[in-house]
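Throughout this review, each integer encodes one residue's backbone shape. One record appears below.

===
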Amino acid sequence: MSEVYANRRSRLRDHFNAAGTAAALVTRPANVRYLAAAAPHGAVLLLGSQEDLLVCSGPPEDRPFEGRPDDTLRVHVLPAHGGADPAVTAAGLARGQGADSLAVEEHHLTVGRHRAIAAAAPALRLGDVGGAVEQLRIVKDEEEISCLRIGAEIADQALGELLESILVGRTERHLALELERRLVDHGADGPAFPTSVATGPHSGRRGHRPTDRRVEEGDFLSVCLGATYRGYRCEIGRTFVIGTSPADWQIQLYDLVFSAQRAGREALAPGAAYRDVDRAARHVLDSAGYAEALPPLTGHGVGLEIDEDPQLAPAAMGKLDACVPVTVEPGVHLPGRGGVRIDDTLVVRPEADGGPELLTITTKELLAL
């Protein structure tokens, strides 16, 4: 694996060297992890002109499922209780290696931290590495996809077990907590994001925070959860009906959202424009008169963060590559009535390899629970 991390750092170095910068400082935690493997909280990564260094406030420790930093990296540990900022220290180390310029992640640094870095090494010309690491992270290797696949299996398992239990009378909050416990029981590092359970008039809302509302007969029940496995995060969302027979309006709305979700999934292919995937799903719902009820995007990338590039949205620029994991998650929420969300994590694959690989496989049939 050390070769993988070294290759990632080399690609980033090519980027900032081409822009005329001698060294780079990576501070965003997900980006540090991508380039250095596991790292202590608050660690930063210096890609120096002579040597790469992982600068930490404390020594790395083995953590379940995460391991230790890339063993080809030298770790620079700050003095205990010194209160020094690893990023500021790293800037001084960059200057000590003879660098005259340093690219930083301006989108992640606070103004105060940026000023502290400039003050610590005034001879350094500071530049911006921009979203270069985020762009490298979009296309996943097969090891990363394997972690996502295992996370999806865990989420499917946790959701499937919940559906076998008695739901009527239980609160949204209780169900969400139970799902998160089941994720950990089945081997997840933890939930990929706060689990959403929405019942009745809350159902179909994107990002709904669970309340003390209890599940009732006749409700739509929308669930959105995800597992983190070795740092990688997946997502699944399903909608069910509580009771023996869904109402006609529930069947019609569900079938419509299912058709939109299928259209979005089928549009996933290498070379497809991000906005065309969004348009494929959005057109189905828009044509049925639900334009005002639609979320701002149809899906997004997943990986070390649950909401990363690419964004599948109407104004998004760019095209999909193979081996890009994304969600497809259209939904409709009708105020006062509820709604439907269907959410899958898939990996973009060429047609010759079978097309999009579906990672979350819980049935999308409208189940009456």
